[in-house]
Amino acid sequence: MYKVALLPGDGIGPEIVPQAVRVLQAIGEKYKREFSFQTALIGGAAYDATGHPLPEETLAVCRNSDAILLGAVGGPKWDNLEPQLRPERGALLPLRKKLGLYANVRPASVNSALAEASPLKEELVSGLDILIIRELTGGLYFGQKHREDIPGGGQKAVETLEYTTEEVERVARLGFEMASKRNKKLMSVDKANVLESSRLWREVVEEVAKDYPDVELSHMYVDNCAMQLVRYPKQFDVMVTENMFGDILTDLASQLTGSIGMLPSASLGGEVALYEPIHGSAPDIAGKNLANPIATILSAAMMLRISFGLETEAAAIEQAVAKVLDQGYRTGDIMQPGKTKVGTVEVTDAIIKALG
Ligand code: NAD
Ligand code: IPM
Ligand code: MN
């Protein structure tokens, strides 16, 4: 029995998480695996129901599970709450930190049926398969934060960007491990020409590299990296970078694949792993059966592979997704001329059917 905590959250979260659950149930039936699901509140939904975006009970449900599947949190309704009650700063970041999830693995691979859905030229992206590892519990997100009034008028806002040797080392090590299982190329992305934290980052990555002589390490500044990802993305394979750079570069990378609705992620390193799409709660399309559930369904596949060791089942989901895209089913975000436009539920129906 595999125990999965479900945290649907806000916006499209409660639409996409149930689709991934339907796919997991279909996998369970086909391969005789038993999954149990326990749903808990997080984000604005939790704030509305309990007065706090990350109730203790939610943490307990997570800690008592074998893996966590999260939708997304946040939305305009909660944007003006005080910071520690906001879904992002009051729930998602503390959840990652409390569970020790220091590495967020975000694969961006281009499905052959979608190569022409990318805003980039087809030949630049077709066959692309990159893996971005984003440090998840350090950096600006978790530094000191404060505001003060400036005498005479205005305010000053301060945040600190902090990294320790240990924080860089563990995520770098994961980068090298993943690179050694792929094409033995690791790109570390930083801003070492300006930031002291990046200079430490680079020194530590160089040090860890000594343990992986067969992996070719290179470094790139983050501004150049953003440009290179658009200019010639196939030069990259495994990349490792700090928290905020990784947040921004992965949204950018999602466009190489056709849509942000396609990119899954796994947050690793702690007591229990968390799987979530890289996109947000998409308030502009919430509640309309328009959201692309594939990023969440592929996150569930990552869960099967990484947390449960169910490689065959994970690959079956990925193949079913590929088949449905080949068949021409498209949610609005990846719609192309001549294809069949379907909703959140209908594309999942097709994926379940393709599972056989
Ligand atoms: P977003 O990712 O929610 O949406 C950006 C754009 O992409 C929107 O036009 C949206 O409709 C579209 N989009 C996103 N996911 C999609 C999907 N599955 N299918 C089709 N289209 C999709 O980013 P945003 O608008 O900057 O943020 C909205 C809210 O989500 C904010 O409150 C933000 O803080 C929050 N957020 C949460 C997470 C998370 O929980 N992990 C991640 C990012 C943003
Ligand atoms: C993500 C999101 C979050 C982040 C926000 C909502 C805190 O953008 O998961 O990519 O920046 O980590
Ligand atoms: Mn993001």
Automatic annotation (TrEMBL):
It comes from the Bacteria. It is found in: Cytoplasm. GO terms for biological process: L-leucine biosynthetic process. Residues 3-351 form the Isopropylmalate dehydrogenase-like domain. NAD(+) binds at residues 75-88, 280-292. Binds 1 Mg(2+) or Mn(2+) ion per subunit. Pathway: Amino-acid biosynthesis; L-leucine biosynthesis; L-leucine from 3-methyl-2-oxobutanoate: step 3/4. It catalyses: (2R,3S)-3-isopropylmalate + NAD(+) = 4-methyl-2-oxopentanoate + CO2 + NADH. Belongs to the isocitrate and isopropylmalate dehydrogenases family. LeuB type 1 subfamily. Homodimer. This is 3-isopropylmalate dehydrogenase. It comes from Desulforamulus reducens (strain ATCC BAA-1160 / DSM 100696 / MI-1) (Desulfotomaculum reducens). The lineage of its organism: Bacteria, Bacillati, Bacillota, Clostridia, Eubacteriales.
